[in-house]
């Protein structure tokens, strides 16, 4: 009886071990190809030669002396993110949105293809602008719009986040929706999460009502910025209805 029990235990353990191996192998077979196929497609698009290793990896040569992940995978992730954002029909990437208030200040907003956004505030009465009698504002000196925060978008819902100066590890969040080339922010709160766009525990969500409008007549040219962050140079002209009465 004891011998039978030992044999039964051995069989059960062997079967469980085999199931574990098969499950792991199937998981690896399912996991590796879809990632590598996308990566391989990216390498092919860029004209970069590669070899497949038996481990599912992608290498620069057949002897697997140099993995291509170190040199190209980060660029691949950025490319995937760009393609995903460009497929969104609501947000206009690398384009200029503005908000004008009655105090004479204009806020320029631009959303990049890497889930960052830039913002700059300027007085419309500074020497950077000229204003005609019909309310047309012409930019005389380029407006440099620099990195301001990050954003996430899903369908027409947008969540933006701005880091609060250290030593406090907090973020100001502003959420809203996009419709007819207008981003309408309706709620704001303070959060601490670096990855997820969630509010801080016990923090109340406050209502807000601010809108920024896409201005097709303004041109934004992307430029390099410190720490590889995105910045833009804005030129052109636009019309502010409130200025027609001044």
Q: What can you see in these coordinates?
A:
This protein is an alpha+beta fold. It has two helices and 14 strands, in the order H-E-E-H-E-E-E-E-E-E-E-E-E-E-E-E. The protein has helices spanning 2-45, 69-86; strands at residues 51-52, 58-59, 96-100, 105-111, 116-123, 129-131, 136-139, 143-154, 157-163, 171-179, 182-191, 206-214, 218-224, 230-239. Strand 8 (143-154) and strand 9 form a beta hairpin. The N and C termini lie far apart (102 Å).
Outline of the structure:
The chain has 2 helices and 14 strands; from the N terminus they run αββαββββββββββββ.
Note the topology.
Elements: H1 2-45, E1 51-52, E2 58-59, H2 69-86, E3 96-100, E4 105-111, E5 116-123, E6 129-131, E7 136-139, E8 143-154, E9 157-163, E10 171-179, E11 182-191, E12 206-214, E13 218-224, E14 230-239
Antiparallel strand pairs: 1-2, 3-4, 3-12, 4-5, 5-8, 6-7, 7-14, 8-9, 8-14, 9-10, 10-11, 11-12, 13-14
Short key terms for the protein model shown above:
single chain; about 250 residues; alpha+beta; 8-stranded antiparallel β-barrel; 2 helices; about 25% helix; disordered N terminus
Shape: globular
Distance between the termini: 102 Å
> How is the main sheet built?
8 strands, antiparallel, barrel
Kindly name the structural category.
Answer: alpha+beta
Strand neighbour order, sheet with most strands: 3-4-5-8-9-10-11-12
* Strand content bin: 35-45%
Got a strand count? 14
Query: Percent range for helical residues?
Result: 25-40%
Rg is 26 Å
Number of helices: 2
Q: Oligomerization state of this entry?
A: single chain
Helix and strand run: HEEHEEEEEEEEEEEE
The overall average pLDDT, rounded, is 79
């Amino acid at each position: 009886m004891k011998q039978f029990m030992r044999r039964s235990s051995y069989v059960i353990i062997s079967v469980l071990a085999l199931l574990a191996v098969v499950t792991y192998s199937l998981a690896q077979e399912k996991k590796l190809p879809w990632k590598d196929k996308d990566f391989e497609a990216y390498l092919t698009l860029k004209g970069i030669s590669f070899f497949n290793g038996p481990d599912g990896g992608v290498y620069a040569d057949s002897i697997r002396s140099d993995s291509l992940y170190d040199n190209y995978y980060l660029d691949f992730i950025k490319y995937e993110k760009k393609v995903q954002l460009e497929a969104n029909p609501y947000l206009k990437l690398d384009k200029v949105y503005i908000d004008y208030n009655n105090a004479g200040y204009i806020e320029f907003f631009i959303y990049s293809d890497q889930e960052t956004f830039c913002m700059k505030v300027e007085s419309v009465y500074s020497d950077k602008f000229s204003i005609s009698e019909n309310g047309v504002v012409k930019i005389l000196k380029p407006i440099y719009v620099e990195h301001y925060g990050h954003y996430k978008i899903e369908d027409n819902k947008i969540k933006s986040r701005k880091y609060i100066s250290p030593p406090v590890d907090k973020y100001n969040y502003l959420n809203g929706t996009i419709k007819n080339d207008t981003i309408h922010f309706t709620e704001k709160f303070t959060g601490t999460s670096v990855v997820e766009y969630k509010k801080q525990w016990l923090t109340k969500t406050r209502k807000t009502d601010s809108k920024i409008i896409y201005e097709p007549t303004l041109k934004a040219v992307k430029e390099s910025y410190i720490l590889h962050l995105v910045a833009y140079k804005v030129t052109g002209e636009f019309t502010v209805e409130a200025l027609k009465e001044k």
